[in-house]
Write a structure and sequence with these properties.
This protein has 586 residues and is of the alpha/beta class. It has ten helices and 33 strands. The strands form nine sheets. An eight-stranded parallel β-barrel has the order 1-2-5-8-9-10-11-12, surrounded by four helices. Strands 24, 27, 28, 32 and 33 form a five-stranded mixed sheet that branches.
Length: 586
């Protein structure tokens, strides 16, 4: 077995903590003249998880935000052609139709161009590898592939899948989550399970991954890894070529907790995403952040074998972990993750949603360019987060020191003499004096992009930390983020209510002039629920401070569209977090 590669900058794993809007104290203008630590503008090990971004948007983000602000890698959505079902749900892409690289996020050429752009910006590229299974649903994929039997695809024949003989269950369903054979040989949610113990199957999977490596991909996040034996994954990994930079591809794996097999079984293959870490962080930020002092002994995975996260595309929807809907608390949890010296950290950014299956902003299912002003939550651009990425890179491998618990909601800690962070998870501002372990002088507060400064005198700093915020500073020159950084969440939730009578089989939708409302395309109209019939209701994420027009339409079982009469309705959103209408069909 070859030694598995480490994540970028793994030897420089660090901590960093702070959230937006922090205040700092007045002091001298000059920064301390003590020896500088690592250059905080060079790429480190932080992974930006730009989930569901299309390839052009990832390329732009690497060039304009990730590279300049020190992110080490970008983790992107599955690139293979996938199921394209009528509602374009986000999980389409976790049901592969073919291993062609043209899909709902762009063409193969756009994918290759994205990888090149990210490399030019100093950012590695990791893709989501869906290799345990193929699609459960038949139909036509995003690149035109048609499948009429889920066990017969362009890449696989029926004998490439597990059968009831290997599953030991005639219906192929995982019924017993303590039975390893069922977990790894039966079908997860009806998804055809590839026979990964077969060497031809292993070679086919490796060929798909090597095709990406040849284009410059640096590594893979393995989806549903626990549903594949460790020996199979290790055999597939052994068939992978080196990356275009001459390194072994970096592998990290999704091993969902709660049943056999254990996460530790997969350490020989690669790092493992730490679900327990995210759960402990959620518990602390929804309770007492002082509990985080005992994080290393709370059951989290070893730092040398894990990748940390605050949330992901599954757990932000099922409530297991935090989400953007937690507002400043969510941002503050990410600040802590970047500050605390543990494993490789990831910063998750996705799209806003009002229902768990909701599709990303799209046109006919194909994901449209990311617009951080509406429909997307771009945490990777937040000035507190970009500041903390630089802080994280600057403090390097320094240990956690000078831990201070001021209250159940206020903590502070240092990273040797390289940096210090103070976090206030409370509902009001808090003023405390912290022993920082840092040289006397004046430092830029990275959480507000260097707008304010912190004075250290006698090793101490008296800080007034705003509610749900943080202050962080480090020993070295801080380069503020330029105009590419911004506050995330520049959108609001709009609930449409309309009273309309219909006949059986006919439903009511809303469609309008902005992308969130389908850009006047009835095929992309937003369905409303008849739960309070004859009132139909539905919520949509729309941009703040935006004027738009809309109408209600009816669709019958045959897809025929009836528009309501009269002029277009109009609405203008402001800065409030939610709006609603109370209309009658006309």
């Amino acid at each position: 077995m070859t030694t598995r590669p480490r994540s970028p900058g793994a030897l420089r794993r660090t901590l960093s903590a702070v959230a937006a809007g922090a205040l700092a104290l007045a002091g001298a203008v000059a920064l301390p003249a003590s020896p500088a630590h690592a250059d905080a503008t060079t790429s480190g090990d932080v992974i930006a998880n730009l989930w569901s971004y299309n390839w052009d948007s990832v390329a732009s983000e690497c060039t304009e935000v990730l590279g300049p602000n020190g992110y080490g890698a970008v983790w992107v959505a599955p690139p293979a052609e996938s199921l394209k079902q009528p509602n374009y749900y986000w999980w389409d892409v976790y049901q592969p139709y073919s291993y062609e690289l043209s899909g709902r996020f762009g063409t193969a050429a756009e994918f290759a161009s994205m990888v090149t752009a990210c490399h030019s910006a100093g950012v590695k590229v990791y893709t989501d590898a869906v290799i345990n299974h193929t699609a459960a649903q038949t139909g036509t994929g995003y690149n035109g592939t048609t499948i009429t039997s889920k066990y017969d695809t362009p890449d696989w024949d029926p004998d490439d899948y597990h059968t009831s003989a290997e599953c030991n269950d005639s219906d192929l369903i995982i019924d017993d989550w303590s039975n390893l054979a069922e977990i790894q040989n039966c079908e997860l949610l009806g998804l055809p399970d590839l026979e990964t113990e077969d060497d031809d199957v292993r070679s086919g999977i490796a060929a798909f991954l090597n095709k990406q490596i040849a284009l410059g991909v640096d590594g893979f996040r393995v989806d549903a890894a626990k549903h594949m034996p460790v020996a199979d994954l290790d055999a597939i990994r052994a068939k992978l070529t080196d990356t275009t930079s001459g390194a072994e591809p970096y592998v990290f794996q999704e091993v969902y907790p709660g049943s056999t097999p254990a996460a530790s079984d997969y350490y020989p293959v690669g790092d493992v995403l730490d679900f327990t870490y995210a759960s402990r962080v959620k518990s602390a930020f929804q309770g007492n952040v002082s509990d985080l002092e005992s994080l290393p002994t709370s059951g989290v995975l070893p730092p040398a074998d894990s990748v940390s996260f605050v949330t992901n595309h599954d757990t932000e929807r099922n409530g297991l972990h935090m989400s953007y809907k937690d507002g400043d608390t969510y941002r503050l949890a990410n600040v802590f993750q970047l500050a605390y010296k543990w494993s490789t950290p990831t910063v998750y950014s996705g799209f806003e949603f009002s229902s768990s299956d909701q599709a990303p902003p799209n046109s006919g299912g194909f994901v449209t360019d990311t617009n951080c002003s509406g429909g997307w939550y771009c945490l990777q651009r937040d000035t507190a987060v970009t500041g903390m990425v630089k802080w994280h890179n600057a403090v390097g491998a320094e240990a956690v020191t000078d831990w201070a618990t001021k209250s159940s909601s206020v903590i502070g800690f240092g990273r040797g003499s390289a940096g210090y962070v103070a976090i206030n998870n409370g509902s009001s501002a808090a003023t405390y004096t912290f022993a920082t372990g840092m040289a006397d002088g004046t430092y830029a507060n990275v959480t507000d992009n260097g707008t304010t400064t912190v004075t250290v005198s006698g090793g101490n700093a008296t800080l007034t930390i705003p509610a749900k915020s943080a202050i962080a500073f480090y020993d070295g020159e801080f380069a503020p983020c330029d105009t590419s950084c911004e506050e995330p969440g520049a959108s609001t939730e709009m609930t449409f209510n309309v009273t309309a009578t219909t006949v059986w089989g006919t439903n009511v939708f809303v469609v309008g002039s902005i992308a969130a409302l389908g850009s006047w395309n009835p095929a992309d109209a937003i369905p409303l629920s008849p739960a309070s019939y004859p009132k139909w209701s539905g919520s949509v994420t729309v941009p703040r401070s935006t004027a738009f027009e809309f109408k209600y339409i009816k669709k019958d079982e045959s897809g025929n569209v009836t528009w309501e009469s009269g002029a277009n309705r109009s609405y203008t959103t402001g800065s409030s977090p939610e709006y609603s209408t109370d209309d009658t069909w006309k």
